[in-house]
Design goal:
This protein is mostly helical. It is built from 7 helices and no strands.
């Protein structure tokens, strides 16, 4: 036995061992906690994406139904136009509330949208485009001009849906069953809505 080891008491040896194990346990706890936190953050972003996507889908459906009521009947369906306009307005109210709650997190800001060349799809801009379109329909604008405006609003809404998917981790969902559901709601449904006009 060396002189140095003889100077270390049994209590000191136990303390050294306990400290070593405590350090190891602390490192393991840190990694487990950080992993759990990353899962929580991932799920929070998905929840935020759904919070924005729901009103966007409702608005998209309402805008296209509004167009159908205005142009794809023998005479404009005034009751249908009014009902769909109200649905779109309710959708925009919900979208504004969602944007205020989680818009910054999902990069629905000038900077976040600008990085992806999507600066024109701020909620306020698209809401204004819709209001102008609805007013033009009531004023009896030309069908060609109105069709172009409808297409532009629909395109902006689809871009917003894509942006919400990109920034909310919805497109990164690792669970296969919920990934397929996301694929339907984020990609297939808006595409079907657009092609079904």
């Amino acid at each position: 036995m060396s002189a140095q080891s003889a100077r270390i008491t049994v209590g000191q040896k136990i303390l050294i061992l306990a400290t070593s194990f405590a350090l190891l346990i602390a490192v393991l706890v840190y990694f487990v906690t950080s992993t759990i936190q990353s899962y929580i953050r991932f799920a929070d972003l998905e929840r935020m994406g759904n919070q924005v996507q729901r009103p966007l889908e409702s608005i998209l459906e309402g805008v296209q139904a509004h167009q159908l009521a205005a142009f794809y009947h023998a005479t404009p369906d005034e009751a249908g136009i009014e009902a769909q306009a109200k649905q779109v307005e309710r959708g925009f109210e919900a979208l504004v509330a969602a944007d205020q709650a989680v818009g910054a997190e999902l990069q629905f800001t000038d900077e976040g949208l600008g990085k992806r060349d999507r600066g024109h799809v701020r909620v306020a801009n698209v809401s204004k485009e819709w209001s102008e379109l609805a007013n033009a329909v009531h004023a009896g604008g030309s069908p060609a001009e109105l069709a172009e405006r409808y297409a532009h609003v629909v395109s902006d809404l689809r871009t917003m849906i894509v942006h919400a998917g990109d920034t909310s981790n919805l497109i990164l969902d690792p669970d296969l069953d919920s990934y397929y559901l996301m694929d339907c709601t984020l990609l297939a449904l808006p595409q079907t809505q657009a092609s079904g006009r």
